[in-house]
Write a structure and sequence with these properties.
single chain; mainly alpha; MetI-like fold; 3 domains; two-stranded antiparallel ribbon; flat
Length: about 450
């Protein structure tokens, strides 16, 4: 029985256990004089029986799936031919991949190499035996769990408390997994970045003005400078992000003011969803739009007025990125402006202020912390954008403030450095992790600043 089928059967058994547990609770309640005799509702008893049926079986399935790769790997290492084992771990991994490809159809009969065929048959036997044992063990655990839970159904049993403890543990586990995943990402990037800084000095990385990560693999190679000054990448990232915010902040803020203060409910219900559609468009589509429409238009316009505009420019990438970020600024600002109490507006009107004066002198100052927080979050989104920059701004690492020239960003270089088959022991590849660490630190600082601004200047309205 395949894992997917086993899980579906387990869930079906859990559903049947829920129905049976609930009916059993009703019968116990009837014998005791009515449902009021039960401590918990029949649905709680049914849920408890279903959990005892499903959770042990699912735990066994998960445990086997975690242990199976290690078991397979130990078998391969123990039975791989000596001629392959002496070439190291990489040769063993390649040998195993070849066997896996050959037995993907469920048979090792087509393998020509006798040693490979024998090991393939061994792996298939282990997997088939493991699948059979897993199915039997999981179904037995499901049945025993359901039977034990049914026996606990009584008028005094606190089924609701048991169900809530399981739900609480599940929610806590989900939160812990999210935190541990974030911690794992940070540590993995940090350790690889430290390996990079052992080969390239930190000051050279953060203050160098030349970026050429092509390092020589052999001593006799030439043309591999290996310069890792990341300042041009930082400058390009800031330049494109600055252009994007010049587009996103005015359009996003003004549209939010219009939708919150001037638009009728009918217009708002139509315009706001249309504006937020921009956030759902894939970034690759924005990249196509920037590369095929905006960049040629800017180049033609520049030539018509005597300016030299590159076919890939920071202005094209930043402008399109700003269009993409407009919904982020608009939605957050709209929510903050709408949250300003109407009583503050009424007080301003009572003093003789016009609607425009009220917005400028009362509403915007009251909503300013939230607006600033939203803008900083949008800046973080702009700094982390990759696809638009790849397609519209190019890969040239230039330290320039001219928006008409091609530049590149940190995220683009991370993609470039990790493209293809790479060895994770060279400074070229490890530089991607150093760039990722810097990007993570910058975005983290921006998010912290945004939260601090909102927390410090937020006003509580009743």
């Amino acid at each position: 029985m395949s894992t997917a089928v086993l899980i579906m059967v387990t869930l079906a058994l859990a559903a049947c256990a829920f129905v049976y547990g609930r009916q059993r609770a009703w019968r116990v309640a009837g014998d005791a004089g009515g449902i009021r005799a039960l401590h918990s509702l029949p649905s709680h008893h049914g849920t408890m029986v279903a959990m005892w049926c499903a959770l042990p079986a699912l735990a066994i399935v998960i445990g086997w799936k975690i242990a199976e790769p290690g078991i397979i790997s130990s078998i391969v290492h123990a039975e791989v031919p000596a001629s392959i084992a002496q070439n190291g771990e990489r040769a063993i991994s390649l040998y195993r991949n070849q066997i896996e490809n050959q037995i993907a159809g469920g048979s090792a009969a087509g393998i020509q190499d006798p040693d490979m065929q024998r090991l393939g048959e061994r792996l298939l036997s282990v997997r088939q035996t493991g699948a059979t044992a897993l199915s039997a063990l999981a179904l037995i655990a499901a049945g025993l769990g359901a039977a034990l839970a049914v026996r606990r159904i009584s008028t005094t049993f606190r089924a609701r408390a048991s169900v809530e403890r399981v739900v609480h543990f599940f929610l806590l586990s989900c939160a812990s997994i999210a935190i541990l995943t974030t911690l794992g990402i940070v540590l993995s990037v940090l350790f690889e970045a430290l390996r990079f800084f052992q080969q390239v000095g930190f000051l050279e990385f953060v203050t160098g003005t030349r970026w050429s990560p092509q390092t020589a693999i052999r001593a006799d190679q030439i043309g591999s400078s290996g310069s890792f000054g990341a300042v041009p990448l930082f400058v390009g990232t800031l330049l494109i992000s600055f252009i994007a915010m010049l587009v996103a902040v005015p359009f996003g803020l003004f549209s939010a003011i219009y939708l919150a203060e001037y638009a009728t409910p009918r217009v708002r219900n139509v315009v706001k969803p249309l504006l937020e559609i921009l956030a759902g468009i894939p970034t690759v589509v924005y990249g196509f739009f920037a590369a095929l429409t905006v960049a040629p238009a800017l180049r033609d316009f520049g030539q018509s007025i005597g300016l030299s505009v590159s076919s890939e420019s920071a202005l094209a990438a930043g402008a399109v990125m700003g269009i993409m970020i407009i919904p982020f600024v608009s939605s957050l600002s709209d929510d903050v402006i709408t949250a300003v109490p109407q009583s503050m507006r009424d007080g301003s009107y009572a003093l003789g202020s016009t609607q425009s004066e009220t917005i400028v002198k009362v509403v915007i100052p009251a909503a300013l912390p939230g607006i600033v927080g939203g803008i900083l979050l949008a800046v973080s989104r702009a700094i982390g954008e990759t696809m638009i920059v790849v397609m519209a701004a190019g890969l040239a690492a230039r330290m320039t403030a001219n928006p008409l020239e091609a530049v590149t960003t940190v995220t683009v270089q991370i993609v470039t450095l990790l493209t293809g088959d790479q060895e994770f022991d060279s400074a070229k590849t490890l530089a991607a992790f150093a760039l990722g660490l810097m990007l993570f630190v910058v975005t983290l600082v921006l998010n912290v600043i945004a939260l601090q601004v909102v927390r410090r200047y937020r006003e509580q309205y009743e």
